[in-house]
Amino acid sequence: MFDILDRATLRDGSFRPTAAALIDARGRVIVSTRPEVYPIGSNGVALIEQAIQLDHIRYEPASEQISVRNTVVWQGRPVGQLVIDFDVQEFAAERSQALWTLLLGNAAAILVLSIGGYAVMRRVLAPIRRLTREMAQPAGTPQLIPDNMIPVQDAELARLYQTYNGLIRALQARTAAERRLAERERFVSLGRLAGGLAHEINNPLGGLLNTVDTIRTYADRPDVVRNSAELLDRGLKHLRDVSRTTLDLHRSGDGAAESTARLALQDFDDLDLLIRPEIDRKAQSLDWQIEAGMSCCNCLPAGPIRQIALNLLLNAAAISPAGGELGLRVCPDGEDLCLCVWDSGPGFAEAMRPRLMSDEPVEPGGGLGLRLVRELVKSLDGAIELGLSPDGRNEVRVRVPRKEGQNA
Amino acid sequence: MRFAITLPLSLRVPLLVAGLMVLMGIVASQLVLSALNRAQVRQLTDLAEIEFRALSTSLGPYVQRDDI
Prior knowledge:
The structure holds 2 protein chains of 2 kinds. Chain A is an alpha+beta fold.
């Protein structure tokens, strides 16, 4: 029996027995190829218990050998238990190799496909990146993408580019329309003034013509001629002042002198002269408080400030009822110059507010230059607020920061 | 998650696909290893049966006679 078991354990192969022991029916080890571990005649119950039954074989991936037991049956009778240790190193190595092959193969495949995917995605997204770059132009407005740059072979991208170009064209058209609207509003205020100014010029004109008649009639009386000439001089100077201030106001942008002219107290006198005919026409009263000094004003451009104040005053005059009150208060407020225009009218209609307080597109007409006021205040980095004056009248407050060297 | 959102699209999509491939690789590897384990156990059982049968046949008469 020793020979049989020895021959079995000395065999080569990938799944060979390394040790074997035979336990008889009484539980004694009767044959063992490793007597140093399981001596002959010792109790073999423990050996049987730690071995796996043949029809329930399982093995742990880390194990190098497994013990398997089975009953030895001779002529239909169980005569003992045979426990054999099998070497499973090659199976474990095969498993380990399969595991590593899978790991490395998967890692290599993922790496290669990821790099390839990245390259493909970069190529596919190149037109989108170009579009994003165009839309995020740091300076100026986004530009149209030329037709020869549109990828016509890709219908989807071509449609995207064409939609983008359509948006840019619409934006350009809107900007141009707003510019035209602002220009038109400037002339609307001029038109409104024109009536009052014609009246202002016409009034002294009658007196002046009378004076000319007086000179003709009393040409031989030097004292009468001298008095009449002085009267003519005063009247003509008044007419000159009126026409000069009107020209100054509506010449902005036509020359460098206007855009660089600094704000002076004289500008508010000019405004008074310009607005007065409109006020008189509606029998309104005008409160004029200029609390800001020369040092406060001379770092601001004259043209935009005069245009802002004039448009707000014209608007206040339009809103206020006949016989109502309105006023202008100009005062320093910290680092800002504050222009407050108040009136006794019912305040801004809801439809008018967006013209002054937001950048929403507006329909032409009806605003009396309010959008122009907003554009001018924005160009001066200023802010507009609607509120109540100290005596509870509706008031528009414009704050403009006083900055050295500021231009319109 | 915020970091993933700030990544450019050209990097985000391949990374997402790579992540899905890793998941798929793990599942597929697990399936392959399980199949290999089953095959090895079956093979072990067959070989052990042959071994036991041969030895039982050889040893049976000696055990019967108590001829060690």
